[in-house]
Amino acid sequence: MARKQRKDNRPNRPGGKDGGSTTGSVRRTRLSTAQTVAKARRTERLEELRRLRDSTDPAGTPEKSDRPDFGHRPNVADLQPSSSGRRAGLIGGGIALLLVVGLVVGFLAFGPQRTAPAAGGDPSASAAAPATMIGPQTMLTAAEAKTIDGQNWSVRNDQTPGEQNVPVPACLGAVSKDAPKPAESLIRTLSAGEGGSTTLHLAQAYKTPEQATEGYALLAKALGECQLKGSYISGARVITGLGDQATGIELENLIKDSHRAVTLNRTGRMVNVVDVAATKKTPDLDKTAKAMASVTDLQCTIAVGLCASGVKISDGPPPIGGDQPGFLATGDIPTPTNGKGTWGGLEPGSPENVTTSGCENIDFNLLQADNRAARSYVLTDKPKGMPKKFGVDEITLTMRSKKAASEAVKNVVDNLKSCEDRLPAATVSDLSTVSGTGASGAEISGSAALVNQKVSDSETSRYRVGIVSAGNKLVYTFLYRDGDWDMTKDQWTMLTSRAAERATQIR
């Protein structure tokens, strides 16, 4: 195979440091009319939220299932408000409404003559955020963990992330140091039985939704390129309805019999990661996501985010990750069956630099395509005994159309099936179907096979090959194998499908 080497940051209180307009330590600047209008509108909005949450009159309250932006579980910051509190809220809402009407009229009449808002902070930046957003009541409970696998779970401890000996959810050890720092964070550890099953729940609260969105994106990227030594991303889910954003991946380490389901979501200013680890089999990722729905419903009101509503989970690609989007991330590639080595990718090059098995009977560099590229992956630590040719190659072509891509794949599959007629020294076996779902629901279809080429009476070259299409993308995968320097059939089928998933993540 030829390759080219080619501090405590809790939200500030209104009027405090950096939290409002103040001049000196005592004297305060009077709120402008615009700020007063904004404040009154926030008051009215919050009263509306509380009425919708607390009301017991079905005739006067919209169906909450139709209003996913409102919390439909008790607000943990204000559990079981009294009836007098609700009456006060209704009265306050009416007063606020009258105030808004009066102020709007005044603003329209005199607004242009008013002083511009004083510098020093967006009056809506931290609307009604509680002093503390994260606590034991906002974390995954033992009862919720039980819904994942039926085991009896117990809470072991709650700790502050970053302190010595505090665990970190899988794949998140290398998150960018430039990431926004959460104002609050907590990590809960739960355990179950004698089998060693553990669950980590990381909750983070940010000062603004924008910071939370950025924090979520960086965590998602870390999951999408997971650098957990010995493990690979064996599956992924596209999740909707679980707050504002959500995703999930499955991880396998067959050598250590370690299996994990990791789910990430965001609701408003809060981000959650739940990492369930087990032996013998992979925890149910779908049930893990559904268990998080209960947590999300407790958080969404105080986080000013979407609650869990109509959660839908389907197969799909992991979050975009890796140093070369569109190609496999190193976290996608299983460790060889002997458990040795760490994968690394070379700089992308041309398909002409890739040596195929010969049975494909096609030159990927000559196919009509709008774009073509190839990349090779090797074990960068060069473990002892590794064959010189061992590695993975990937070719990706953007064809002129979906039809052209699928026809080219069919042509290659037919050539594999008839290879022994053309090349008597070759044998093709274990031809299997590859399927999956790429980005935007792109259907993945193709085949994978074993190819042996007898070089001499004493030497035979052995390969795994895969060929699939996904939309207008054509993807070919190639592995030189030798003894236990190999992958299992299921791993290779998964990897071929994953390569297509990654290809569909870019245009």
- CATH topology title of the largest domain: Protein Transport Mog1p, Chain A
Taking all residues together, what is the mean pLDDT? Answer: 82
Q: What is the count of DSSP helices, taking H or I runs of 4+ residues?
A: 8
Q: Helicity, in percent?
A: 25-40%
Radius of gyration from the alpha-carbon trace, in angstroms: 28 Å
Runs in which pLDDT lies below 50 for 5 or more consecutive residues are: 1-31, 51-128
Q: What assembly state would you assign to the polypeptide chains in this entry?
A: single chain
Anisotropy-based shape: elongated
* CATH domain class name of the largest domain: Alpha Beta
* Sequence of strands across the biggest β-sheet: 1-2-3-7-6-5-4-8
Account of the 3D structure:
With 507 residues, the protein is α+β, with helices and mostly antiparallel strands. The chain folds into three domains: 81 residues, no CATH class; 180 residues, 3-Layer(aba) Sandwich (Protein Transport Mog1p, Chain A), CATH 3.40.1000.70; 174 residues, PknH-like extracellular domain (Protein Transport Mog1p, Chain A, 3-Layer(aba) Sandwich), CATH 3.40.1000.70. Helices cover 25% and strands 28% of the residues. It contains eight helices and 15 strands. The strands form two sheets. An eight-stranded antiparallel beta sheet has the order 1-2-3-7-6-5-4-8. The N terminus is likely disordered.
